[in-house]
Amino acid sequence: MSSYSDLCLICSGQQDFVVNIHEAGPYDRSHDYTRVLYCRACALGELRSFSYDGFVVFGEEDEVMVWSAVLSTADVDVVRSAFTCSTPLAGICECPLHVRAYDTSVRVHKTRLPEHGPDRHSPAGRTTAVVEVVDGLVEFRSA
Hints:
With about 140 residues, the chain is α+β, with helices and mostly antiparallel strands. Helices cover about 15% and strands about 40% of the residues. Strands 1, 2, 3, 4, 5, 6 and 7 form a seven-stranded mixed sheet that branches. The relative contact order is 0.20.
């Protein structure tokens, strides 16, 4: 499962879709998700939140917004090994792993990225997140 918005923000290559933490949609006029992605070419992981809101009034806010926090390769490896849900790519799953990952990912400070332009494809200024396993559940924290 990959889409244009899942491309690496640095090299524009396809990223591995590690975990779909939460997803609502896609619907005709809205789509939201939070995912862990990994770019093998850049050896860099990402905690990405995406929101498309087709109901936005012109000038109110952007229709498409993307927030991103960098994850180290070691942290992505922790997610891969500790996220033992049988359906890790099901963003609608309500198992304890998905729920805890989503609850903690919401509190992580992520950098809002422009939809277009050179600043979108730069790690400069992006925040970093770290991963911890607490009581067998993956949690995200701001670094």
